[in-house]
């Protein structure tokens, strides 16, 4: 499974540098000089990092073979990806990668199937996107609401207040 670690944005300057929207916890490793990064679409890569630096809170990256603004502009919107097999498991039993959560069955505390995790959003607070009854429900991914994540059994438990999984049916 391919995991997005960044998205190429606008060119910066005239010599081929691009801004990168970082989507990894380890940008120093993923965008270190010499790192090879696959792309989506695949035809635009793989790309080899020539240099990277932070500028005004934005990661700027220069790739081998990208020497001018026009070539940098051609890469705009390209997703930078890695294979999920290249990510070592976490030592923290309460830490999960998005790809481990997507596809898990969502159960109530009584064991009733309540949906499936279809995505994980990171917008200040981590949110599980749960597909339930043909629509998406957003569940904060915190221990108090998601007390059990069992990767081996392929499910997690959502134990929230009335209406969390059915906001239109608040009791």
Strand proportion: 35-45%
| Biggest sheet descriptor | 6 strands, antiparallel, barrel
Spatial extent as radius of gyration? 20 Å
Low-confidence stretches: none
The count of strands amounts to: 12
**Ends: how far apart?**
40 Å
Oligomer: single chain
Task: Compute the number of helices.
Answer: 3
Mean pLDDT: 88
Helix and strand succession? EEHEEEHEHEEEEEE
- Spatial ordering of strands, largest sheet: 1-2-5-4-3-6
SS-based class: mainly beta
Fraction in helix: under 10%
Protein architecture, described:
With 171 residues, this protein is mainly beta. The chain has helices at residues 27-30, 69-74, 98-101, and strands spanning 2-12, 17-22, 36-40, 47-55, 58-63, 79-83, 105-107, 113-123, 125-132, 135-140, 148-150, 155-157. The strands form two sheets. A six-stranded antiparallel beta barrel has the order 1-2-5-4-3-6. The chain has a six-stranded mixed sheet with strand order 10-9-8-7-12-11, with no helix packed on it. The chain is elongated. 20% of the residues are buried.
Task: Provide a brief overview of the structure.
This protein is mainly beta and 171 residues long.
Topology, pairings included?
Elements: E1 2-12, E2 17-22, H1 27-30, E3 36-40, E4 47-55, E5 58-63, H2 69-74, E6 79-83, H3 98-101, E7 105-107, E8 113-123, E9 125-132, E10 135-140, E11 148-150, E12 155-157
Parallel strand pairs: 7-12
Antiparallel strand pairs: 1-2, 1-6, 2-5, 3-4, 3-6, 4-5, 7-8, 8-9, 9-10, 11-12
